[in-house]
Write a structure and sequence with these properties.
binds glutamine; 277 residues; Rossmann fold; single chain; alpha/beta; 10 helices
Length: 277
């Protein structure tokens, strides 16, 4: 079978996916161990029987909803190819806005903490941009800790230490910037029944109190771990901006600001804390 015919065949079968052409290209390129540009350059090349069988098996799993990132085992975030698996959230493009905002606030030698790091996406992006920074990341899940450490090693990012901790429980020291993309979806949210989220751990997605419980806990506890005039940045749902600002206000944070993502939705709220000690 030719490359272009294989893509047309897969695109047709994947029409329920939302991005059938892209999915087909990414999966075929993965099987052929090439960049997707190769498929455009050599549409008439034949694929081997083995590769065809592998491609068919991936398309079949994709039809059943398995995320493309789980099928290829990788997802790019902030131009870093990250290894992903079903123990963590698949990094989202919208989370890059959190990285961008943090970078605007961080001194080059900042002490940075990432809570609930998952694959390590946020802290590895920050550490790669700020090689002089001291970066710490924690996750409740041992599997996530292993994955984030593996990503740090694969990407040769050395200025980050990753440990197991339920939020701040095993965190020592104080930080100039604390970032988190915590679970923030309400348990009855209908989005949980659709798309990639069905294959991601609920512990990384769902939080009590209509999705706000973990954000509240982080904002409460972060006060003891922030250096004077340090920053807290939390990703949240597109309808949670005002609730998160209220939580921050009630805890005496200052300069509270919500930033929109690339889809123009409220996505990250940032604030400073000045201690009165
Ligand atoms: N933004 C993700 C989604 O809507 C959720 C991420 C999270 O809960 N931290 O699928």
């Amino acid at each position: 079978m030719r490359i272009d015919d294989a893509l047309v065949w897969a695109q047709f079968l994947l029409s329920g996916s939302g991005s059938p052409r892209l999915d087909a290209e990414v999966l075929l390129a993965h099987v052929l161990e090439k960049e997707t540009i190769y498929l455009m350059t050599w549409p008439e090349r034949d694929i081997s029987a083995t590769d065809k069988a592998s491609f068919e098996a991936l398309v079949e799993q994709r039809i059943n909803g398995v995320p493309v990132a789980h099928l290829t085992g990788t997802r790019e975030f902030w131009s870093l190819p990250l290894k992903v698996n079903n123990s963590t959230l698949i990094p989202r493009p919208d989370t890059e806005i959190l990285v961008e905002t943090a970078l605007n606030l961080c001194a080059s030698n900042a002490a940075i903490l990432d809570l609930g790091t998952g694959s390590g996406a946020i802290i590895l992006a920050l550490a790669s941009e700020l090689p002089q920074a001291t970066c710490t990341a924690v996750d409740f899940s041992e599997d996530a800790v292993s994955l984030a450490r593996e990503n740090a090693t694969l990407l040769k990012i050395n200025n980050v230490s990753i440990a197991q901790s339920n939020w701040f429980d095993n965190v020592q020291g104080t930080f100039d910037v604390i970032v988190s993309n915590p679970p923030y979806i309400a348990d009855n949210d209908h989005h949980l029944k659709k798309g990639d989220v069905r294959f991601e751990p609920l512990s990384a997605l769902v939080s009590a109190e209509n999705g706000l419980a973990d954000i509240r806990l982080i904002a409460e506890q972060a006060i003891r771990y922030l250096n004077d005039n340090g920053y807290l940045l939390i990703e949240h749902g597109f309808e949670q901006g005002s609730a998160v600002r209220d939580i921050f206000t009630s805890l005496d944070y200052h300069n509270i600001n919500t930033i929109k993502d690339y889809g123009d939705n409220d996505r990250v709220t940032v604030a400073t804390y000045k201690s009165i000690k």
